[in-house]
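Changelog note: in this version the structure field was regenerated for every chain. One regenerated record is shown below for reference.
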Amino acid sequence: MSVPEHLWRFPTQKTIESLAKRFNLPNTPDMQDWEWEVADSDRIDEFISAYESGELNKDEKFTLMETIIQSFEELEIPLLREPRWKKVLNLLEDNIELHIYSIWYWSDLEFDNKDEQYRVSPFIRPILMKYKDKFT
């Protein structure tokens, strides 16, 4: 099941430029899916700190959360042993209106087999299931 069209949300160029400058990240015309390309599991603390700082607008928070989720997707340790992951799940739920697209997308409902879904999907799906009726 794909994300319902009425929930679609994507990073804006202005937001990408702002975050690239803030974090000294590359931003070149050939980058597709910038928010995922710049993900870096070594910078998770920095990304979360900026997200929680109160200094970002909604578009920046949305885009940065995509980068944070992708950073956890690339993290080499089990997510169950990662306390920062629990914090991110709480941020997603606490900001459900802002991140429903991300929650729906990363839930990856099209695949039940763990080998075919994102690593983060089993953790994000319960949030989607809790709020799904509100957004369908």
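Spot check on this record: The mean pLDDT is 94. The first helix runs from residue 13 to 23.
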